[in-house]
Amino acid sequence: MSRTIRTLSVGIVCAGAIIGVVVDPAHAETISWRANESGIWNLAANWDTPTGFPPGANDDAKHLKMLNHIQVAGNRSCLSFEGTSGVVDRFLLIESNKTLQIGQGGLFKSTGAGMPVANFPVRMKNGVAPNKTTVDVQGPIDGIDFGPAPKQKGDHVKITCRSDLKNSSIALGDESTVWTAGTGFQDIASTNITLGDGAIINFDGRDVTGPGNHTVGWTIGDDGIVNIRYSGGGGDVSGVDMTIGTGAATASEDTRVNIRSVGFTSLPISDTWLLRGYADVAIDLHFWAAGENATIVLQDDAKMSIGGSALGGAWEVKDEAASLSVGGDFDAATLLVDGATVNGYRLGHKTGPVWDLTVQNGGKIITEDQGGLLGQLALSGTWFGHTDNSVLTYSGLGNSVHTSAVDIGGELVRGGWAADLEIGVDEQFLVATELVRVENGQTFTTPFDSENVTIVVEGTGPLKTVESIGPDYEGYNEREVLFADSPCVRRWEKLLVQSGTFAHAVDDICNTPISGHVDSLSCPAGPPPGGVPEAMYVIDLEVEGGATLMAGINVEPVADVNIYYTGAVTGEGNIVDGAGQPYVPIRLTPTLYGDFNGDGDGDEPDEPGSDTRRFNAAFCSCLEFDARYDPLVDWNCDGFIDDADRDQYNATWKDPAGLTTDPCNPGFCGT
């Protein structure tokens, strides 16, 4: 059921004053509770008082020795209150719609043993709308546990804090409020807060921290508000485990839990945010750093928007109706998008560790342009100065990534045989996966699976450039075969150029040890590991009517790439080369490594034209006088024909007759 949210309790707190509070005669005394049984605050006989009056606005009240509780049956005030916990019956009990006010400069604290575990309890009865049962503390609160009276929920209760709040807990029911006011407030530290439905937490311009490297828990039910606003230098949040919403199916669509803040600067260590039900979180900030161990989970219908950048943390956005929006760079350590939607500007543009991205069960990631800059998704360090590659895992059906520019320079993993992923590119370029990389002299082959991944090039406007790395074996591949078991080449499920789009398949970035183009200054010229142009490989190619795809010429300054396919070419659009002439993509026959002549086996006798003879000629011991480096024989694309290639040949074709068994001599054979 939807509730009306009230941000102030009517008739209770007004401009720092308490309306209806009994004003006691002025005196400044320390007055201790002396009754040996429970009793009411306003009975002077219950107090050790030299004046004949119970504690008033200028007095320090103490409840340190007697084993019973004090009943606040009317609106009462004192300068400070000190209590000792440790027994069941020692607490303050505030009656419905009554107010206890702790004065300016005073303390509300506990001196109980075992602090802050053994805090002094304050029990509050349910208020009655439109008023609330209220505690208004103008000085610091230290070691006080606020909770409901026996057999009550603590509904419609208000705690007003005007200075520090620390080492305490607040556990109240529905329509309850934790509110800060005044200019003397400094910090909220080490305080657990649990509120029911329709509740309000308002910390305006206050820093909220957990105890050191540990965390405290905040929980608020449905139809509530959490407001932390930057004001006068405050507003940082750290060390808080926050649970927002119950996730109850009965919550109405209009129900919202809102975090409205300006100026979060950090959420550093071990923080967990669980947003459920219809939680609606808005963080308007310049930069937000989640901690190394932070976990942020959005599920059910939860929504979260971050105005600036977010760094770090393990993020999970679950369920079809859940959504996350990040206005700046989003550099999560991990991001799981499960049937939900994530909108961002630049995902993965970090200078730190790699990140893991998982899209499953119809998850959607959308990166959009901002301020004339491209929206981007990056899994590689090529755009931002580091060499570590990240991982994109997809499983289930209906997953999509829509971005202006994408760099999938890391590992692309299909999580199940039936999984699919659509990558839509509508601005400038797509860089496909770097299958083999060299770091510090070591060669690494990155596991990769692009089948079931469709690339959609779409939209009107400027030229769309598409770059898919992979060595182009033109001139070495007379039989036009594709080795399905080689890590050098992986086929995209489909390249789809939509109507109204002009797409250009290019080779202008050096990506693998043996592939590159003369137009790319980062690639060495001449013999391997440079000098082998790149190509794009797909299963199916479709160019819709009204679309144009340019490819095919590998000469300066055009640097088009050949497009190879193994399935079908469809569509009514135009496929042309850089000179504007029709270009016909090249069809390849899938086979296994070592079957260089495409006849279905690799174990022919050692005779001219056989597969074994071609391998032996290219093997790095240079058995043939005229041997040269043969990139088609280089199974793992590391720039060498060596033992790793021979082992793969043997594993596939069961030690074919005539294949060399000589030990490998490091190096390539030359040209």
What is the strand and helix layout of this fold?
Blueprint (H helix, E strand, L loop, with lengths): L12 E2 L2 E2 L11 E4 L5 E2 L6 E2 L11 E4 L6 E3 L3 E3 L1 E4 L8 E3 L4 E4 L5 E3 L9 E5 L8 E5 L3 E2 L1 E5 L8 E5 L3 E2 L2 E3 L5 E4 L6 E3 L2 E4 L4 E5 L2 E3 L6 E5 L4 E5 L7 E2 L1 E5 L12 E6 L3 E2 L4 E4 L3 E6 L2 E4 L4 E4 L4 E4 L2 E3 L2 E5 L4 E4 L2 E3 L2 E5 L2 E4 L1 E2 L8 E5 L3 E4 L8 E3 L12 E5 L3 E5 L1 E3 L3 E4 L6 E5 L3 E3 L4 E4 L2 E4 L7 E5 L6 E4 L13 E3 L8 E6 L4 E4 L29 E9 L4 E3 L11 E4 L3 E2 L3 E3 L9 E2 L1 E3 L19 H8 L24 H11 L18
Parallel strand pairs: 3-6, 4-7, 6-9, 7-10, 8-11, 9-12, 10-13, 11-14, 12-15, 13-16, 14-17, 15-18, 16-19, 17-20, 18-21, 19-22, 20-23, 21-24, 22-25, 23-26, 24-27, 25-28, 26-29, 28-31, 29-32, 30-33, 31-34, 32-35, 33-36, 34-37, 35-38, 36-39, 37-40, 38-41, 39-42, 40-43, 41-44, 42-45, 43-46, 44-47, ...
Antiparallel strand pairs: 1-2, 3-5, 52-53
Evaluate the radius of gyration: 35 Å
Cα shape: elongated
Estimate the strand proportion. Answer: 35-45%
Structural class: mainly beta
Residues in helices, as a percent range: under 10%
Average pLDDT, all residues: 79
Largest sheet, described in full? 21 strands, parallel
For the termini, the CA-CA separation is 78 Å
The count of DSSP E runs of length 2 or more, i.e. the number of strands, is 65
Number of discrete helical segments: 2
Low-confidence stretches: 1-25, 382-387, 432-440
